[in-house]
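Q&A log
Question type: sequence-to-structure
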Amino acid sequence: MKKSLLAVAAIGAFASAAQAQSSVTVYGILDVGYIGSNAREGSVGTAAQGNQVKKIQKSAFGQSGEQTSRLGFKGTEDLGGGASAFFTVELGLTPQNSELSGGTAEDRVQKTTNASGSAVDNRQSFVGLKKNGIGQFAFGRQYTPVFNIGAATSPGQYNNVIGDLVYLGSSSVYSSGSTVNGNNNGLGFTNRASNALTVQSDNFAGFVVGGMYALNNTNQTEVAAPGTYTASAGGNTNWNGWGLNGSFTWQKLYIGAAYQSFKTQYNTGVAGAATIVNLGSPSATSGQSITAASPAAALFSAAQISDKQTLVGATYDFGILKAYAQWVGRKVQNDYATSTAVGAGEQLNRNAQQIGVRSYITPTIETWASVGNGKVKATYNAATSNFFGYQLGSNYYLSKRTNLYAIYGQQQTSSTSANAGAGMGANQYAVGVRHTF
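Response status: OK
Response body:
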């Protein structure tokens, strides 16, 4: 019995020693409440039909109006000499749904998801090393440089009610998304990158710089017999990207800028005027060609999308209020023709700017407001859209961790071309409670 007690005591001593060298924190956000919206979708029919309008009204006891609900684990371990290891695992929560975690919030340009789309929504998962006085690096699924600079300069602090024209959160007021109206989710910029390496410097006289490189490439070479065709006849399934960011803080002024570029390439053949050539072929005349009619050239031709994103933001704290300003630009280009309808070099360009303020009226009441406008131009359908939006919000803090909130936002789209969503607009409102732990 005494030996057993000694063994238990020894195990406890080792556990205490391990805890003294490292720390793990459990944190999270639960945000629930009432969310309602009214939307108007405009489209142009034939000359006989005239303009067609669809009205959508939504009302629900929903979730994540002010901030996306989540559950996270983060920790650090002291390695000595000013060095440390750290990790973060953060899962999205959907407290109003039958599945507690999971989602399919799609980036409509890259066709990737901000969430995992599975039963577990992987918001972030990374591990890294840090050296005091130098900086840090980390591998895993992480926020992008543009996202981080935008978060530091967002007057609405990335809430999910419409009206923020830079962030474009996970609000859903329309029946479906479109890349020409400028208002759909996942069009502002890429929030997260999987397969990413990030680096960030320490603060040197107010300057902080960082970078990101994301890599997920597969290139396969497969030589088919002359005159035959297989569905997996070589090719590329490549996605990669890189980014840079920098910020400067001087007293009450903060200025930040970020740029990131992504490339998506899916290629199972090389499109020619009349033939498709297997990528494993030594040359187009070596007997590896398959006629364009078998299979159809449009289905197996090369495809590559370049996606370049820029954000600049600034804040200044006047004491009684804090002022915000942001500009975001995104240029998406189809590098290779994928069909006769979508040719190489066609682009989607979007830019938006907004200003805002945030202030405590009393020690427990916080308010904010933002207003902005922007433009979308798509060369593939000669569409040009101008859009405008604003947002108002307030928090009433019951405690340090619990607050009530009310947010109202509105967006409106006008158009200079017949097929760019003229008359499209919506308003959305959310009233709820947010608890952080």
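Response note: The CA atoms of residues 337 and 343 lie 4 Å apart.
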